[in-house]
Amino acid sequence: MYWIIVIFCLGILVALHELGHYAMARATGMKVHRFSVGFGPALFSFTSPKTGTVFQLGMLPLGGFVQILGMNPFEEDAFTDPASYQRKPVWQRALVILAGPLSNYIITLAVIFGLLTLAGMPHEVNEARVGTVTPDSPAAQAGLRANDRILEIDGTPHTTWDALVTTLRQSPERTLHLMIERDGRRFFAPITPKNVDGIGLIGITMPTTNVSLPPGEAAAFAWHKSLSLIENTLSSLAALISGKDKTVQAVGPPGIVKMGHQQLATGAAAFLSYLAYISLMLFLFNLLPIPALDGGRTLFLLFELITRKPVNRKFDAALNTIFFLLLMGAVLIVSIREIFFG
């Protein structure tokens, strides 16, 4: 069931991207032949008596597509019908192209805003309590768990995180006896802090509590968080292309779905954060100045705006086809690596 939910939600993100294209096309007076949620044979379809647009639900719930009159320059009436994409000013065509990625960015902001105002964001709490436990650490080996309260160390009461950390740091490789309170039950746990450059560490983090933010603060945080994610992603992309950082690897659909499954198993908030991040990645990916992507189409429109001459449609079609096949090939290679080699 987890896998189905993840794939369905990812499909919704892509469908909302296409909905952005559709909404802007209609707002600028373009005719839309078809809007499909999902691919493959239609399970259900409805034709709008007002616009003639066919709305359908495809058999494969993986994204969707929007078919705008004239988007294919070889289509009949592409250059004669006033409602055609090709007959509209450059700025209107650019709005239609950019509306898809923009919808993904808006989704990212909305999800982060919703999480901050409803679920809140983690704030550190100065309590002698376990936040998280690092696997294979002294704390994990001693059986400590998240939210365990540490009442005493060798008989000395500890009520704050600061006091707890001070004692642990001063006790590398010395066995300590901690009085733990868990679910109303108290017990002792011997633990030996690991010596890291003369400092005792047991592998626990500071406890946190979620605090909801006022709408204004949440909106500002969502904006700055999205910009930070964009900056980090572009840095990672540059490192991947240049080969400077060998730890950075491309992630394909199987890897994306696997990450979604892991986050969904963690909880609703973690899964929604994951969807916000994926939506932001769709925003960035589609804006790359590569033919076959929205960024490449925008680049061609910019060329037309500067030269006042459209790109040769045969050259445009050939270049988009070539890069589409290259992109699909790259996705296929990454997917095979993830499926068979982990």
Task: Please provide the count of β strands.
Answer: 10
Q: What is the spatial order of strands in the main beta sheet?
A: 5-4-6-7
Our Rg estimate from Cα atoms comes to: 27 Å
- State the domain count: 2
Mean pLDDT: 90
Order of helices and strands: HEEHEHEEHEEEEEHHHHH
The percentage of residues in β strands lies in: 15-25%
Main pleated sheet: 4 strands, antiparallel
Structural class: alpha+beta
| Helical percentage | 40-55%
In whole angstroms, the N-to-C terminal distance is 22 Å
Poorly predicted parts: none
How does the overall form come out from the CA principal axes?
elongated
Q: Helical element count? A: 9
Report what the structure shows:
By secondary structure, the protein is α+β, with helices and mostly antiparallel strands. It has two domains: 2-118 and 251-341, no CATH class; 124-209, Pdz3 Domain (Roll). Helices cover 51% and strands 19% of the residues. It has nine helices and ten strands. The strands form four sheets. Strands 5-4-6-7 form a four-stranded antiparallel β-sheet. It has a two-stranded antiparallel sheet with strand order 1-2. Helix 1 packs across helix 7 and helix 2 runs antiparallel to helix 7 (268-286). The relative contact order is 0.11. The mean pLDDT is 90.
